[in-house]
Amino acid sequence: MKIKVLYIERKFNEFFSLEKVFRQIAKSLSQKIFEISFQQVKYISNSVGILKNLVSFKPLKADIYHITGHITFISLILPSKNTVLTIPDLGILQFRKGLRRLILKKLLFDLPIRKSKYITAISQTTKDDIVQNIACDANKIRVIEIPLDENFTTEEKAEFNAECPRILQIGTAPHKNLPNVIKAIEGLKCQLIIIGRLDENTISLLKKKNIQYQNEFEIDEDQIKQHYQLADLVVFCSLFEGFGLPIIEAQAMKTPVITSNINPMEEVAGNGALLVNPHNYQEIRQAIEKLTNDKVLRENLVSNGIENTKRFHHQFIADKYAELYLEIFEKNQI
User: Fold this and answer.
1) DSSP three-state, residue 275
2) Nearest to residue 276, comparing CAs of 228, 236, 233?
3) Which of 10-19, 45-54, 163-172, 276-285 is the least confident region?
4) Which of 1, 121, 188, 205, by CA, is between 20 and 30 Å from 22?
5) How do beta strands 166-170 and 141-143 pair?
6) For the CA atoms of 270, 275, 279, 284, what is the dihedral angle to 10 degrees?
7) Residue 256 vs residues 12, 287, 293: alpha-carbon distances, Å
C-alpha cells in the first residue's frame, strides 16, 4: 500500500515559484512508495481570504499533508501528527506595521508554528529568522533546501557581449532591490532585462536614468530559461530572501551571477557568484564592470557555479523529504 501525500497550495493568481518547486520534488519521489496529489485553497490569501479558507477548506484524505508555504494558517485545521509545514521566509512581516502586522504574525507564524510538529525551512537563514522572531525550538525545524529544476541545463552558451551586455534581473518586488540596480547601470552601455511587473515609480526611474530595458511578466518556464540562456549577466542583489532560486538557475545556465553578500544568497551561491553589498549601488556597478572586463573571472564563476548546483539536485532534495515522510508515517503506525 502506497503512502498518500497531499500537497496543499495557495490559490494561483499568477506564476508562483514555490509551487513549481514542490511539483518538481513530488515528481522525483518514488512512485512505488508514494501516491501524490495536489489541492489548492479556494481563496487568495488576503485578510478576508484567510478567514474564508479556514472555514471552507476540506482536505482530501491523505497519510501526509504538506503545506507548501505561504498558506501556513491551514495547519490550524489539519492534524499536527501527520502535517508538514514548510516556511520559505518571514518576509511579509517586513512590509507590515502595527495591528495588521500583529494579526498576520499570529495567523501566519505564531499559531501555525506552535501547533505544527514537523516544520521545514528552505534555508538556514529562514530557520534562524524563525527561531529569533517566533517562540520556536530550533530542534523542531529541519532545513531542506530548494531543488534546481531539472530543465535548467544548457550545453552551449553564446559568446559574452562585452560591448553591450544583457543584464537579467529576476523580480520586481521591493526587496528585489531593482532601484539600486538601475542606479548602478546608469551611464553603462548595456541592456537591462526585467522579469516581473513594473510600477510607475520604477518606470519613471528607468526613463530618468536613460536605461535601455525590456520588461516581461507572466511568462512560462521555457521563456524564463531562454532569458537565462541569452543573458550575459544575472544581477540578483536582493535585500533579503528565503533562498534565492535565480542564483542556482543562472549557474546551471552557465551565466555569471552577481548577488548580495548576505545570507541566504551568499550561502546558496557558494563560490559561484560575485558578492556585493546590496545597499551600495556603486559596489553593484563595480561588480558589473569587473565581470564585463574580466573573462577569466567570468569563466571561473561559471565553472564554480556549475559545481555548486550539484548540492541542489532535485533527487537529492526529494530524498530528504521522502525520509521525513517515511518517518512521520512510521510513527503514526505505532
Assistant:
1) strand
2) 236
3) 10-19
4) 1
5) unpaired
6) -140
7) 32, 11, 13
pLDDT tens digit sequence for 59-108: 999 999 999 988 999 999 999 999 999 999 998 887 777 888 888 899 99
Helix or strand or coil: residue 232?
coil
Higher pLDDT, 45 or 120: 120
199 vs 189: CA distance, rounded Å: 24
> What dihedral angle (degrees, nearest 10) is formed by the CA atoms of 47, 9, 15, 178?
60
Residue type at 256 in one-letter notation: P
Q: What angle do CA 238, 321, 271 make, to 5 degrees?
A: 40
Q: Which three cell numbers stand for residue 81?
A: 501528527
Residue 85: all three cell numbers together:
509545514
* Residue type (1 letter), 197: R
Q: For residue 154, which amino acid is it?
A: T
- The mean pLDDT value for 209-228 works out to 93
**Cα 247 to Cα 288: distance, rounded to the nearest angstrom:** 16
Q: Could you tell me if 123 and 266 are in contact, meaning their C-beta atoms sit under 8 angstroms apart? A: no
**Nearest of 138, 173, 135, 183 to residue 284 by alpha carbon:** 183
Instruction: Give the whole-angstrom CA distance, residue 321 versus residue 76.
Output: 22
Per DSSP, helices labelled H in the chain are 17-28, 47-56, 98-105, 111-115, 124-133, 178-185, 200-208, 221-230, 245-252, 265-269, 281-293, 295-308, 314-333
